[in-house]
Amino acid sequence: MKTWKNIWIHIKRNSFFLRTKLILLFAFVSIVAFVVMVGTNLYINHTLSEIDKVYVTNVNMNELSNTLYQMQSSMESYLTTKGSTDLTDYYRYEQIYRDMMQEMNNVVSDNNLLIMERNIRNMSKHYLEYSDAAVQAKRGRNVENYKVNFESAENLYNYINAYIYSLNNELFKSNSQNYQVLMVSLRYLESFSTIIYLIVGFFNITLLIVVTGNITKPLKELTLAANEVGAGNFDIALIEVQTKDEVAVVSRAFNKMIVSIREYIKKVKESMELESKMKEKELLMDSHLKEAQLKYLQAQINPHFLFNTLNAGAQLAMMENSEKTYIFLQKVSEFYRYNLKNHEDATLEEEIELVENYLYILNVRFSGEIHYEKHLECDISDIRLPSMILQPVVENAVSHGIRSMEGEGLITMTVKETEAGYSISIKDNGTGITKERIDEVLQGKVWESDATQNSNGIGLGNVISRLKLCYNMDNLFELKSDGINQGTEVFIYIPCEKKAGIGYVQNFIGR
Amino acid sequence: MKNRTILFTVFISLLVVIITVITVIVIYNHQLQNAGLKEVESFNNYEDHYAFISEEQDSPFWDSIYRGALECGLKNNIYVENFGENLSQKYTPLELMEIAIEADVDGIIIKGDSTKERQTIIDKAVEKGINVVTVIEESMESKQCSYVGINGYKLGEMYAEQIQKYAKDESDNVIVIIDSLTAGPSQKMVYSGITNTLKEKVPKMKVKAKNIDYTSSFGAEEEIRNLIIDSSVEKDMIVCLNLTNTLCAYQSIVDLNLVGQIKILGYYSSDIILEAIAQNVISAVTVIDTEKIGENAVNILNEYIKHGQANKYVIVDTEVINSENVEEYMDSYQAE
User: Fold this and answer.
1) What percent of chain A has pLDDT over 90?
2) Per the structure, how many domains does chain B have?
């Protein structure tokens, strides 16, 4: 009982091993075939035993007739010779005959054979009475009596014999017919058993095909999936695992392998994409630098000649005791020298110095109209940033803000330390700028035209792009104005590696 | 594939195997039945056993009486055996009666007659506690319980009426065939009825009795044919008092091409006789309700066994079939 329960639980869970599955399947098929074979054999045996029994009734009738004959003969012999052997024989056969009579039908029925049997039985009863009476009379030497009884017994003997003969004939007719029918039926049975075997065989094979198909289907799926993977296709559906056998274990391992390979491929792809993006940025950066440098080179036809000329002018001014001219020429010379340095980054001090030189030159040019204030609220010695960032902003403030205003212009530069780095503010008190214009500048719509008008040729767009490329961050450049004649303030934010942990920025700048 | 599918397949396979096996067994048994295997076991049991001793095996007349007795018996839980029917050896009615007595039957139906032998055997049965009812003819001197049959004299009167009806003229010669061996009081009574009635109504008509000797086999047919051929015997009409004689007379008249010259008055009906009446070869026959005789005989025996007494003399109605009403009988005969 427990075993069956276990088997049922396994069937429900589909958790048989392949070996157990196959053993159960073959056991089931064998049992069905065995049961059908045993059933048909039993039926054939039953028919054969029926055939054996067909003529039993005739044999019984013959035995009855023989016993009756033996009894009648022994009675006649005894009545004739009074031999003790005959008497013994008579009693022996009489007993046998009585026993046989007991087996005969005693019920009134509408079956001819049975009613004849009943008649024989009743007549035999009277026959035995007469024969017993005859034998008793003989033993008692009652001659008259035994003769009368013998005659009655003999008459009945003849009638009974005729009846047995007729009944035997009727039985023989019926039995012969039954025998023929049974023989025919045996032939039918052979055909039918063959049909049963064929049908059972067919369904057993179907069952085998279905169940073995069920066992081998996951293996086939696994093989197909493995072939796909082998051909390089990792985007296949994972194998559905429904069983809990050995194939299921292999399938699960295969599924895990597929998932792992996919993850690995994804990571490699991401890393390659990142590298490609970085290379692209580097190229773009280079391109911007080259552009800026080209613009300067265009502006400096022969810088060495210009420096030498400026130096000669400075010495001349010195000799003529014109100190202001000497300083002016010195500043102009420094300004252009800075521009000629082929460096990618600079310190904030250098950038501020450049701005101051630039403003000095402008003030000489425009008679000191532009005032300049510098507020350094922190230590700026360690601050590095891309070169040529502040000067274009100041140049922009002068060109668009101060030059077209009335009164004295003021440019205020403030450097502050913030949480993530440093903030550089360049503020003018010029004509200001509208909101729309600010948006257009920040969106880069006015860069191109702006650049051509600029004396140095480096526009705000170039500054914004380089800041973005250098630090890989947006919003490092901010432009604020409260409106027309309200001045303009530009904020440049320099992230600090130490504060924000932006190692990448420094690395990039360092390359 | 899920477990359910496998279980479903297993279930379907088992179901198909079981259905196949059952179907094959059913077809096999059906084939056996068609082949005609005799089921000895199929029979009904009854309380009492009566022996019907036919005077003539395979005779429609006696078969009809037996049929009536059998059907009535079955309704009353009694099996009436047509005694000697299945025996390969031929026994006389008296021998069969002796066998029936020794076979301890509960009642016997037999044709009576006036012979001493029949009377003795009837008495022997009654002494052994077996009730005996005589039919068609009675053994008046015996200890028979009852008689079921016809009134011979009345039957004779009916015959006389038919003779008058079909006679060409009043001086016709009429021959009445009587079974010489078994001619008991019944046939003699019939003959008396004919002669007395005709003497009274048609005194000129000549009526003669012809005794047929049954001692040799097929004697009746020979004697009747000889009688018809014999020109020394004047005959305008032949009256037969049993079925066999009627059939013999009919066949001889047809064979000898004497249809219309000699008229036949017969006894009992069969398909041949009805056909002969329709063709006017036989003028008329007198019939009795034979099944009713059998039925009454069984009922009388039942009465005797239950109550120890019953009607001693039961008469069954007789009818005449002639060309006027033969079609009705033919229809009912075909319907049967």
Assistant:
1) 23
2) 2
Instruction: Calculate the CA dihedral of residues A346, A348, A351, A352 and round it to 10 degrees.
Output: -160
Mark whether B159 and B236 lie in a shared domain. Answer: yes
Q: How many CB atoms lie within 10 A of CB A252?
A: 13
Give contacts of B24 with chain A, Cβ < 8 Å.
Answer: 192, 195-196
Mean residue pLDDT across chain B:
86
| pTM for the predicted model, two decimal places | 0.57
Segment A466-495, tens digit of pLDDT: 888 888 888 888 888 888 888 899 999 998
A204/B81 CB distance under 8 A: no
For residues B283 and B169, membership in a common domain is answered with: yes
| Chain B residues touching A203 at Cβ < 8 A | 13, 16-17
Closest CA to A26 of A211, A158, A165: A211
Any idea which architecture A21-212 has in CATH? Up-down Bundle (1.20)
Single-letter amino acid code for the residue at B315: I
Domain CATH code at residue B245: 3.40.50.2300
Long-range pairs for B16-23 at CB < 8 Å and ≥24 separation? B16/A199, B16/A203, B17/A32, B17/A36, B17/A199, B17/A200, B17/A203, B20/A195, B20/A196, B20/A199, B20/A200, B21/A36, B21/A39, B21/A196
* B81 shares a domain with B117: yes
Dihedral of the alpha carbons of A101, A105, A106, A108, in degrees to the nearest 10: -150
CA angle, A180 then A182 then A185, to 5°? 110
Q: Please indicate whether, in this complex, the C-beta atoms of A32 and B87 are within 8 angstroms of each other.
A: no
> Does residue A447 register a pLDDT over 80?
no
| Domain annotation covers residue B65 | yes
Closest-CA distance of chain A to residue B191, Å? 39
Q: B44 and A12 in contact by Cβ < 8 A? A: no
Where do the H-state alpha helices sit in B183-320?
185-201, 219-229, 243-255, 271-278, 290-307
**B255/B295 same-domain check:** no
- Residue A43 vs residue B240, higher pLDDT: B240
pLDDT tens-digit series, residues A316-334 = 888 888 888 888 888 888 8
Give the model's confidence band at B185: pLDDT under 50 very low, under 70 low, under 90 confident, else very high: low
Give contacts of A109 with chain B, Cβ < 8 Å: 43-46, 79
Cβ of A181 and B44 within 8 Å?
A: no
DSSP state of B262: B
| Range(s) of the domain holding residue B160 | 152-289+322-335
The answer to whether residue A212 neighbours chain B at the CB level (below 8 Å) is no
Q: Are residues B283 and B295 in the same domain?
A: no
CA dist B245 → A202, B323, B336 (Å)? 73, 20, 25
Q: Is residue B12 part of a domain?
A: no
Question: With DSSP H G I counted as helix, E B as strand and the rest as coil, what are the percentages for chain B, rounded to 5?
Answer: 50, 20, 30
- Mean pLDDT in chain A? 83
Decide: A476 and A466 in contact? Cβ < 8 Å. Answer: no
**pLDDT higher than 80, residue A68:** yes
- Measured between beta carbons, the chain A residues lying within 8 angstroms of B25 are 43
State which CATH number among 3.40.50.10190, 3.40.630.30, 3.30.565.10, 2.40.440.10 fits the domain covering A343-510. 3.30.565.10
Residues B61 and B76 in one domain: yes
Residue B330 and residue B194 in one domain: yes
Q: Which position has the higher pLDDT, A233 or B285?
A: B285
